[in-house]
Specification:
The protein is 34% helix and 12% strand. It is α+β, with helices and mostly antiparallel strands. The chain has a domain at 5-53. The protein has a three-stranded antiparallel beta sheet. α1 crosses α2 (19-27). Mean pLDDT is 80; it is low at 61-65.
């Protein structure tokens, strides 16, 4: 069976993390990937297996909070 290769963006969406987190994990040697010239591709099944072995969550559950947005969406405290 052929591995399902995902781009950085696709893997980030699949795992519910930022693209920067995926790149950092790859460059730090935490997850394996394939380089095709300037493109990075990841075997999603292998990544899930590695994350499960390390006891990390592999997919965002339906109850999880969405990632924070840039610029902040939190309520500001009243000014006194």
């Amino acid at each position: 069976m052929k591995p399902t290769l995902l781009s950085v963006k696709e893997l980030a969406q699949e795992l519910g993390v930022s693209t920067q987190s995926i790149r950092r994990a790859y460059w730090d040697g935490l997850i394996p990937g394939y380089r095709f010239q300037k493109m990075l591709r990841f075997d999603v099944d292998r990544i899930r297996q590695i994350l499960l072995e390390r006891g990390l969550v592999t997919m965002r559950s339906s109850r999880a909070r969405p990632p924070a947005r840039a610029g902040g969406t939190h309520e500001k405290a009243p000014v006194r």
